[in-house]
Design brief:
The chain has 54 residues and is mostly helical. The protein has a domain of 34 residues. The chain is 61% helix and 0% strand. The protein has 3 helices and no strands. It starts with a helix and ends with a helix. The relative contact order is 0.19. The model has no long low-confidence stretch (mean pLDDT 75).
């Protein structure tokens, strides 16, 4: 997700502090789709909360 890097670079420090990590599967071809969706939603929530701080 390049949105954080390009539009919200200041949020990168929060990602480093967050417990959420990019999900990994047991091989390069096998990533759990639900885990990936949860991670995406976590990033969206982070952006939404940041936008609402202003």
């Amino acid at each position: 997700m390049r949105t954080i890097e390009t539009d919200y670079p200041e949020l990168q420090k929060y990602l480093k502090e967050s417990r959420s990590t990019i999900p990994v599967g047991n091989s390069k071809e096998n990533i759990n789709l639900e885990d990936l969706k949860d991670y995406r939603n976590t990033l969206r929530d982070l952006i939404t909360k940041y936008d609402n701080k202003d």
